Amino acid sequence: MKSMKEFTEEVGETSFVTVRGGGTRWNLGGPLMEGAIEVTAPIGVVNFKPEEMIVRVGAGTKLSTLQKELTELKQEVALEGFSNSTVGGSLAVGSSSHRRARIGAASDVLLQADCVGADGKQFVAGGPTVKNVTGYDICKLLVSSLGTLALMGLVTLRTRPKPEMGVWFKGKVLFEEIVRSCYRPASVLSDGSETFVLIEGYAQDVEKESASLEKLGMRVMESAPIIPPVVKGPVKDDWNEGLLDLQIGAFHSYDPQSEMPLADGVKKLSDRIKNNFDPTGRLNPGRSPYRN
C-alpha cells in the first residue's frame, strides 16, 4: 500500500493537482483545469475493528471491495457508488445510499481523514472514535467538497450492522399508507406512476411488514429497481428521467441537472472556507460542489 508520505510527495506544494479515483463521476462539479497533475490515493484496507464498528482504509480503495469484505463481518458502510467508485470518490461527491432514511447519510460515515492540504502538508481531521468533541467538524466539510478543500489519503469510517434480508415491493400506493403500514422502511421511491418500497431487517420483521404491504396491493419485485445516483439540483417535472425519494426529497437521475441556486450568504461562507483551506485554488482547480 502507498504510504501517506508517498502520497504527500506526489501532491507536492505548488502544482495544480487532483486525485483520480474510479472516474465514475469525473465531470461532476465542472471541467477540471487543464494541466492539473493527477495522483492516486492509497489503496487497501488497513484494519477492521468490527467490535467498535469502524474500519480504516485507503481512500483509493474500490467501494465494492470494501463492502464485500465488510459483508463477511455482517457490516456495511452507508456509501453508494458505481462498480468502479472508490471510497474517497464516494465521500468527495457525498454519495449517500438510497437507503439513507434508514442507515444515514454519507456525511455521517467519515470519522477521521488523514489528508494533504493545499500547502502540501499532512493533517488529520476528526478522530477514530465517536464521541462529543468541541471545535469544527472538518470531516463533514470534506464530504461533498469534491476534493476542493483537502485531498484524502487514509480514512476511518463508521460501519453499521448489515440487515439479515431485504425485499423490494412496487405498486400504486400512497406514501402515507406505506408509512402507516411499515416501521422505518429502508427506501421509498417513486417514478411518478408507481411507488417502490424496500423493507429490510430481521427475517421475522420483514415477513410481518411484507404482509402489511401485500394487503395494500403492493407486489414483490424479482429484482431491485435500477436506481441512478443522487442528483444535486432542482427536480424536473418529467419524472421519466429518474426516481424521487419520498422520505428525504432527494432525486435520483442520470440526466444532469441545472446549476443549484445559491443564496448570497451561502456563497460568501463557501468562498471564505475555500479561501482558508486553499487560497491559491490548486486543489481540483475548476471544480465546484455547487455546479453539476
Fill in the CATH topology of the largest domain.
Uridine Diphospho-n-acetylenolpyruvylglucosamine Reductase, domain 3
User: Low-confidence runs (pLDDT<50, min 5 residues)?
Assistant: none
Percent in strands: 15-25%
Oligomeric category: single chain
| Strand order of the biggest β-sheet | 13-10-12-11-15-16-14
Describe this structure in words.
With 292 residues, the protein is an alpha+beta fold. It is 23% helix and 24% strand. The radius of gyration is 20 Å and the shape is globular. The mean pLDDT is 90.
Concise account of the structure shown:
The protein has helices spanning 4-11, 63-71, 87-92, 100-103, 138-142, 175-181, 203-215, 264-277; strands at 17-19, 37-39, 45-49, 54-58, 75-76, 110-116, 122-126, 151-158, 160-161, 165-171, 187-190, 195-201, 219-220, 230-231, 242-245, 251-253.
What is the fold's blueprint, element by element?
Blueprint: H1 4-11, E1 17-19, E2 37-39, E3 45-49, E4 54-58, H2 63-71, E5 75-76, H3 87-92, H4 100-103, E6 110-116, E7 122-126, H5 138-142, E8 151-158, E9 160-161, E10 165-171, H6 175-181, E11 187-190, E12 195-201, H7 203-215, E13 219-220, E14 230-231, E15 242-245, E16 251-253, H8 264-277
Parallel strand pairs: 1-2
Antiparallel strand pairs: 3-4, 4-8, 5-9, 6-7, 6-8, 10-12, 10-13, 11-12, 11-15, 14-16, 15-16
Describe the structure using short key phrases.
seven-stranded antiparallel beta sheet; 24% strand; 292 residues; Uridine Diphospho-n-acetylenolpyruvylglucosamine Reductase, domain 3; five-stranded antiparallel beta sheet; 16 strands; globular; 23% helix; alpha+beta
